[in-house]
Amino acid sequence: MKKQTNFLIIQLVFVFSSFLAIAQNPIIRNQYSADPSARVFGDRIYVYPSHDILATEGKGRKDWFCMEDYHVFSSENLTDWTDHGMIVQQNKVPWVKPDSYSMWAPDCIERNGKYYFYFPSVPKDTTSIGRGFTIGVAVAEKPTGPFVPEVNPIKGVKGIDPNVFMDKDGQAYLYWSAGNIFAAKLKSNMLELDSEVKTLGDLPTKGLKEGPYMFERNGIYYLTYPHVENKIERLEYAMSDNPLGPFKVTGVIMDESPTGCWTNHHSILEFKKQWYLFYHHNDYSPAFDKARSVRADALSFNPDGTIIKVIPTLRGIGVSNAAKEIQIDRYSNISDKGTSIAFLDELDHFKGWKTILNNSGAWVQYNAVDFGKKSLKWVIVRAMSANGGTLQIRTKGFEGPLIAEVKIPAGTNWSDIKIPVKKFEGGIQNLVVVLNENNKNVEVDWISFK
Ligand code: FUB
Prior knowledge:
By secondary structure, the protein is mainly β. The chain has one helix at residues 2-18, and strands at 20-22, 34-41, 44-50, 69-75, 80-89, 107-111, 114-121, 134-140, 148-149, 160-166, 172-178, 180-186, 198-199, 213-217, 220-227, 234-240, 248-254, 267-271, 274-281, 293-299, 320-321, 333-334, 339-343, 353-357, 363-370, 378-385, 389-395, 402-408, 415-420, 428-435, 442-449. It has two domains: 2-299, Glycosyl hydrolase domain, family 43 (Tachylectin-2, Chain A); 320-449, Jelly Rolls. It contains one helix and 31 strands. Strands 21, 22, 25, 27, 28 and 30 form a six-stranded mixed sheet that branches. β15 (220-227) and β16 (234-240) form a beta hairpin. The protein is elongated. It starts with a helix and ends with a strand. Beta-L-arabinofuranose (FUB) binds next to β2 and β10.
């Protein structure tokens, strides 16, 4: 009996850990993901993204967006993200054309203990809207489902990128896009429009606008949206004292992707007194920007309520536990010479990245590592170096206190090198890894402390 219980525990641990990602940016590490709608339900953040897949023969359109279902992810600490699995599938929604592979950007909101998941897709029956997308709803008792799709899409809506905003007076609004951005009130059943559709016309007239996301802070209504001001999308916003406008175009939340990912799509929320921007980039697929990955970074405001532009980071959000594998390739800062990042396996990008230190004194800094209170005695470094080399592990900065010096033996295989920590400093520290003078080519997968 005992043996059986142990076996069950081992199985459960395996099943659970296979759905759990410890993540910086991107935060979703087991699949492509895009268009994140992040929501706080109870004491967790739930992320409802699109699920990009690669089109294959007979399955989606080559070189284009291809999505057949949605997953939901959640975290209570912004670091450990759980994939709760598939919640809605194209061939299980009565009104969706089952081979359209067009389950684009969704949103989810709670009302009176029910969770309403809004998603766009291509309908089977195009008589009422003609060609293009419409928007439907699936309803659940819990944020992770099971979600039951409505038989028909919402009447009177043609377009993509639904976003639902609930005002303080309990009035819900649906926003969506189709070149322009549109809005209408929703009935309290959350399934039907309760007003005329309004085109939000105070926004830029040139260049595509899509992906609306409305939020309110201190009485200011922020209509945020990706817009093609130049060649690709950047995140912009407009402010108002009313959810339906008029809006004043105010500024840029995030500039265009430096690597050319054509789309960006976001959501904004407050969690434990800090605001966050969830957005996407094509981290796992640098050569194809329709296979994207969800990221998150902190966002803050000026005293007048305007948004301070967010500079995308690899480090992302959340505090990393020193006892877990710290992926220093998701750095906060690196030396301008001799440090580079590469995929661990060019044939499987989901295996993640490595840091290559290739110059005397090259360094990489990874902020916000929690060393806790109990003394950690060992550092373990997973590394490889053709000619061998020595790494200094420091805290605070590249000239900060030296906590260990790790010799990496010459070789062409990864090895886990474990050595004692010289000096333990508890609490939250910034970790810095520096390559010794006259050393070259040391590659690091991760660092951990025991
Ligand atoms: O994910 C498909 C489409 O790309 C979304 O609906 C747009 O917002 C853009 O991100």
